[in-house]
Amino acid sequence: MTVALILAGGKGTRFQSPVPKQLVLLNGKSILEYSLDIVEVLNDIELTVLVIDPSYEQMFRDITEKYNKRIEFCEGGSTRQESVYNGLTRINELIPLKEKLKVLIHDSARPFARSVFQSVLKKLKTEEAVVPVIKTKDTVYIIKDEKVVDIPCRDHLFNVQTPQGFSFSAIFDCHRLADKKQMHTFTDDGSLYSAFQKTQPAIVAGESMNFKITDKKDMLLGEYYLSKGKTER
Using an 8 Å Cβ cutoff, are 108 and 165 in contact? Predict the structure, then answer.
């Protein structure tokens, strides 16, 4: 069994909207719905746990009532890492038998992740952890005290995307250990997994289409892709 854990509890302060950005309409549909639409048609996923800000719970319930697959809610935390941990804890409560349970952790602000979902699910059949990555296009400087201390080779630099897939027991154990040790600064689950499992996740190719909506310019890009019918691969 595979569960989708979708993070939709962020405030989206940079987006400058009266509601969280995942509830903002993109071509007549909330940004969140694009991810829920993907999950709805993936046979491998049987349950979705949606991490939300309870202040907007009724809006989330109104959005999700049209879906046939089971959707459960849990409250988000003050950081992304805490929100994921809350979601994993909720899954642990909901599902008694977790021996072969898998989980896909996804940021709802990435609405065009259909092909990446499929790639991660396929790879996760034979791996314990899978992370999608895409090659960076920019040269990166490492700067300390306003001085350039290193310029790493761009050939080895990749940006990380979601969804990221894991054995549930493995990633839940990692989050519990991080919480126990008061290590709360991880910004993605693949790096947290690597830190505590002492092994690296498998990788699959991400997609340039699978960008994260952070500001109004990203909305314009999303509208462009939708107008050209490029988002259903």
Answer: no
